[in-house]
Description:
The chain is mainly beta. It has 1 helix and 19 strands. Strands 1-2-5-6 form a 4-stranded antiparallel β-sheet, with no helix packed on it. Strands 7-8-9-10 form a 4-stranded antiparallel β-sheet, with no helix packed on it. It starts with 20 loop residues before the first strand and ends with a strand.
Amino acid sequence: TSKNISGPYVKQDVALLPWAHNPQVILVESGSIPLFVLFHIGPGDNSTTPSQCGSHGEHHAPANTYALSQQRRDGGAHGATNGQVFHTATDPAGPWTSHALPFGCNNPSPMVLKNGTWLLICNQRTWTIYTAPSLDGPWSSIGYLPPSPPGSGVWEDPYLFVDKRGNYHAIAHAYDAHTPCGPCNSPLVSGHYFSTDAINWKSTTTQPYVHNVTFTDGSTHIFSTRERPKLYFGSDGVPTHLINGVNPMTTCPPVPSVNCKTTAGVDWDFTLIQPLNT
């Protein structure tokens, strides 16, 4: 926790047991008791064993974990059974209660509108958007986001939000899955969808954020990846900070650039919080 978004942060406790990651918390203020809704990947119940690392340090989760955490539209090797789990609590300290959605949802990106309606993007190779009148459902699919523009790589890790004018946006981590890495200096790190109604979406080749960041001491660093984008908003509804999981590696093994973050022994991923020029 921290008294402000810039930190410093102090670890307080563990919210969920392994494995669970890519969290996003939505605060629902209804009545006198707030409700914290935590969406994430994985069951978060300590029911699976730690994953093994591949030849380049990449992490492979057990098959039964994928069955709980994601559903591939093509029924591929990573499972296609229902049961995406999210958790709720009336206090950030817990206890957290698990709930299951009636569909699989990889890399969930939730949002609740002012009228209580929920929107949820699931990255199931194609990004599917679901809606429900309340957290209890019923949930229904209202469509798919279009493919990313040609030449813009693979888009993942959606983050859904509405701007002050009422327009919908979904930003993403982007990467090139084909070009060998070498120096970790690919400028491709992000993607951006936008919509006026959350049903009809368009994409742009202009990246919402880039791979180089200037720090308060004046130094600039090029990151090999900037994943899991999240935004922090001010009281006026305008985003003030961008939050990413980043990797500062400058050289990589001869694999696709997304794997620059997974070299055994030199994996120094961390969370980066960057103020925005608003």
